[in-house]
Amino acid sequence: VSKIAIHDAVTGETVERDMTPEEEAQRAADEAAWVERKAVEDAAVEATVAARAALLERLGISEDEARLLLS
Amino acid sequence: MAINAVKYQSNFATGLRFITSASGSAVSSISINNCFSASFSHYLVMRDFLSSSANNNVSLRLRASSTDDSAANYRRQQLDADSTSIAGARATGETSWVGALGITETTSMGFARWWISNPFEAVRTTAWVDASYLPTGNIQSTTRVYEHDTASSYDGFTAIPGAGTITGTIYVYGLREAQ
After folding, report:
1. Exposed/middle/buried for B12, CB within 10 Å: 0-12, 13-18, 19+?
2. Could you read off the pLDDT of B130-161 as tens digits, one per residue?
3. If we measure between CA atoms, which residue out of B104, B91, B140, B124 comes closest to residue B30?
4. B57 touches chain A (CB under 8 A)
5. Which terminus of chain A has a smaller tally of CB atoms within 10 A, N or C?
6. Does B25 touch chain A if contact means CB atoms closer than 8 Å?
7. Kind and range of the H or E element at B7?
8. What 3 state SS string does chain A have?
């Protein structure tokens, strides 16, 4: 069971307890969303890297040479 | 000397005021209730994480009366730098502010400084974070701005690692703008 820490700024008390079933469900949804989001972001980065490499090959220049052109 | 003393006293009444801190050990989330109030409009949140069981964006969800607001009303705009590569990204309709407490790796907790404006007032809450991102053998930075789409009042927030658990402490400060 996942743990949750809840602190109250007025009383200064912190309670660390097991998550309720509702909190566990939200936690599972958050984690699934995170996995999905990370996959999309990783794929976007990989696509950009691949597109850049393909373009450099078509132009016949290295990454350093491309950077020099843009500097 | 007398003039300086008066000036010092005046300045002391403004600036950052410590409100509270909350710790958790190997927890899946850390919630703080009643840290936002009518006493301040702007808040600084720092975190001192000691360990993370997974590589994570640590997100934040606004909270009122001990209940998280997990409706899809959170949006962000970010600018990421990785060596000479700069990339922007935008997301809307999310259920939390993704990465608002930065990004942790199992090997490095990184740094994050989060400012939030007007969470307690019943207006759209906005926030900003700048953070480091230190995957093994690399160093990156991210700057993100956030908005919540409803004009609601919140008195706290929950920090949520994307996966796994975190151990550490979150510090909340209020900014006293004037006497």
Report:
1. exposed
2. 998 887 778 889 999 999 999 999 999 999 99
3. B104
4. yes
5. C
6. yes
7. helix B2-12
8. CCEEEEEECCCCCEEEEECCHHHHHHHHHHHHHHHHHHHHHHHHHHHHHHHHHHHHHHHCCCHHHHHHHHC
